[in-house]
Amino acid sequence: MLRRVLALPSARIAVAVLAVIALLAALGPLLAPHDPLATGDHPLGAASGTHWLGTDYLGRDMLSRLLDGSRVSVLGSLEVALTALAVGVVPGILSVYLGRAFEWITLRLADTLVALPFLLFAVAVVALLGNGITQAMLVTGVLVSPLFYRVSRAATLAVARSPYVEAAVIGGASIGWVVRRHVWAKVLPPVAVALAQTVGVGFVIVSSLTFLGIGVQPPAPTWGGLLASDLGYLSQRPWAPVTPALLIMVTVWACNVLADALRDVSGEAGRALVLARRARDRRPAAAGPAPAGGAR
Amino acid sequence: MSTLSQKAAAIRQPAPGNAAGTAPPVLSVRDVRITDRAGGREIVHGVGFTLVPGRTVGIVGESGSGKTLTCRAALGILPAHFEVSHGSIEIEGRDIADLSPAQWTALRGSTISAVFQDPASYLNPSITVGAQVAEVLRVKKGVGRRAARREAVELLDAVHLRDPELVYGQYVHELSGGMLQRVLIAAAVAAGPRILIADEATTALDVTVQAEILDLLADLRDRTGLALVVVSHDLAVVAQLCDEVLVMREGEVVEHGPTREVLHHPRHDYTRLLIAEHQQYGLEKYLAVEEDA
Amino acid sequence: MTTTQAQPPAVPVARRTAARVRHTLGRALATLARSVALFVPVFLVATFVTFALRSLSGLSPARLQLGEQATPEAIARVEAQWGLDRPFLVQYGDWFDGLLHGRLGTSWTNGADISSLIGTGLGVSLSVATFALIIGIVFGFGLGTLAALRRTTWVDRAITGFVTLISVMPAFVVGIVLVAVLAVGLHLFPSAGYMTPQQGLGPWLAHITLPAVALSFDVVADVARQLRGSLVAAYRENYVTGAVVRGLSPRRIFFRHVLRNGLGPALATLGLKFPALVGASVVTEWVFGLQGFGRFANDSAQSGDVPAVQGVLVVSIVLVVVFNLVVNLVLAGVTPASQRGV
Predict the structure, then answer these.
(1) In-domain check, residue B291
(2) Which of A73, A231, A235, B144 has the largest CB neighbor count within 10 A?
(3) Cβ of A284 under 8 Å from any chain C Cβ?
(4) Is residue B290 assigned to a domain?
């Protein structure tokens, strides 16, 4: 599947962008030309030979702060996506097999989580439960997990109803065997799509939270935090938000392109969703209200 | 079933005052060839027939023989990339090649109309079926809202739907396939077209429902002088309804003539094969009726 | 349906009409009942989680009022005043009963009534959110429809490209760009603050336009994408061929047949987008210096005012639930077939 994804030019660009971002996150602090926390004598300086992106209101080097802050964004968004994956996929698969009570409860929980304005909830939970980016992203991951629940449930439903699995079950195959043998293969592509999407969503959330100053203590640089500090000095340095904003947008774009590419190459994902939607129309418990709409 | 076949036989007698050949044709298809521009391949290699009011032409052939494409050409709804590359189609003496989209819109429904296989999919699932019949009346005949509703109910009654008032307010998913085909026919004939194309209109239906729908089509033809084009892969359907039949295979018309002639004296091997296959399923009944007549 | 069936054929028209009205009304009520039944558990779970936040946070009004050096006795006294020494479920029941009566409790920081605090901010936020929704619907539907009608042409590609571009712009980034260019750079709009409609419709619109535009990008992108997809799919349906063959005009086919069936998924998307819209108000209100509901949530959360945060969350849940109820009802009216078996 990876090879097929990389055959698409758009996906190659997206993967390259994400690789660069990941490299920045890994090596950023080493690449930074200055100490991101060291204040200088030239506050709000323009771009120059020593300060490629200029300086902020305390004279700190913007490029260094940007590079140093990339790690928080990348790790944070990965944490969101992986938490959501861990929380969502297993119940999604099991909801098909563990009986109606479990199905009903998990569906209602998924409905509830989708209905929560997650940014508002993330702000509330993080501020109340402790000011750390790790907790923040864990909570956010749980809040966006219904996406994974939906797609893995949809794919599992499609598999469980397919004639070859029914034949296997009639032939005496155990549920465990069916899951290992057939379900994983069908669940993985849509989950991969959802993962790429969620990393993008995670980026927006990390940036939004750090923009509000939530999750990271002030002197430490973050992309969102850089935008927030730029906001106060727009009249002096109107170009300052451009770089962090572009970085966020390009990263989110790359995630979306990758998600689209994954969806395109795995025809299964699309088909599983269509099948599941049809199945949902027939199932009273599964046919949720609008917020239960599931994967885009 | 005997009454049905007798009726079918009776229907096949030309109605008095409606003698074939004297009335001007409402539909004439002359050596039509259809090409897939994308593949550069010719799919239909020359089909021709003429149709006068009150008469029925049948087109038989297996799927992929080009019968549906020919009908779609006559309706001006060929799929993208397909075009009539040779020959002409005239509806009421007008060559359809010169028709503008607006002229097509005016022509369809009021002069030529069609019903298809899988009637459920040809009706909008979000609008009551009655409203879709009334819509045709309002748009094509300029009937007022209330009158359109009344006429639509009458039409539903005319296609032998029980309790037309109730059916009027129902949605596609609330009706059976046979009922939907009746609704589709009612919508197709609402604006009083002169030509009706029935493309595999009875294919997916139960045998008894199929017979009822064929009866209904014959009845409409005899009452209103409708000209029918019946497309089917089923010889029995054609035998029951048609005056004239074209046998198509791989885009080619392999046999063309009066139904009786074609069924009794098939000249082409393929027609013989079709008839032989059908004799196992009771086509001889129609053959017998033919001999009595 | 069974009632109409039971009637003798010769029923007076008036009674038949009455039966039909009852029938339609019945459908609407059934949809409403089903939707409510689905949302009740959502509401219960969400409010329970919200209430559990206090116990989980370990925050206490005593810390806010007495500071870190308070004696355990003093803390216990303050907590007893707030009724926090009672069993958890009793507190929950009490709080939930208050919710049903519209009481959200009092703030830990200043003892003010939270309902009225939220009420003042809600006007600002709802003005912005409604305006953003209107922009989102108008442009989302416009672009999506245009792209579907001109599918595979350059218009379609241009719209798809534009939609992709704006879909990757987070609301606060858009907000900052708008402030930088239109407010600070060109002085076309005020960069911050709010005026009520009573102070003048023009100033009110001027103050909410930029935040609404910033919030709307996401809605525009999602609605346009969804609508384009479902309209293109609807055009491939047989009932379009059926309508063509019956001689209906392209315009009529689009408005009465295609749009109606393509609308469902776009409306559902709108329902899904609404929570995000409410959530994003936290950042946009910060960017535009609006004292709204989102700003109140942020300030209360950062100062550890648990009842205020809970109040904001409950109000946001109610907003989302009510909005989705409306969406479900509209959906049921537009595409009755999608409601079968739900």
Answers:
(1) no
(2) A73
(3) yes
(4) no
- Cβ–Cβ gap C173/A248 under 8 Å: yes
What's the CA gap between B69 and B169, in Å, rounded?
34
pLDDT of residue C9: 45
Domain with B8, as residue range(s), is: 2-14+23-285
Residues of A in contact with C337 (CB under 8 A): none
pLDDT for B196 equals 92
- Taking CB atoms and an 8 Å cutoff, what residues of chain C touch B100? none
Q: C339 in contact with B at a CB cutoff of 8 Å?
A: no
Q: Do chains A and B touch (3 or more CB pairs under 8 A)?
A: no
* Domains identified in chain B, total number: 1
Residue B293 lies in a domain: no
Q: Kindly state whether B103 is in contact with chain C, defined as any CB-CB distance less than 8 angstroms.
A: no
Determine contact, residues A294/A197, Cβ cutoff 8 Å: no
Q: Which of residues 244-283 of C touch A (CB under 8 A)?
A: 267-272, 275-283
| Average pLDDT for C150-162 | 87
Q: What pLDDT does residue B5 have?
A: 39
Extended strands (E) in B15-152? 27-36, 41-51, 56-60, 82-91, 94-95, 112-116
Q: Distance between CA atoms of B114 and B234, rounded to whole angstroms?
A: 18
Give residue C214's identity as a one-letter amino acid code: A
With respect to residue B230, please indicate whether it lies within any of the assigned structural domains. yes
CATH code of residue B182: 3.40.50.300
Tokens matching residue A165: 């699995």
Residues in chain B closer than 8 A to C256 (CB atoms)? 124, 127, 135
Inter-chain touch A117–C185, beta carbons under 8 Å? no
Residues of chain B with pLDDT under 70: 1-22, 279-293
Window B:145-204, CB contacts with C under 8 Å: 163, 165-166, 169-174, 184, 187-188, 190-191
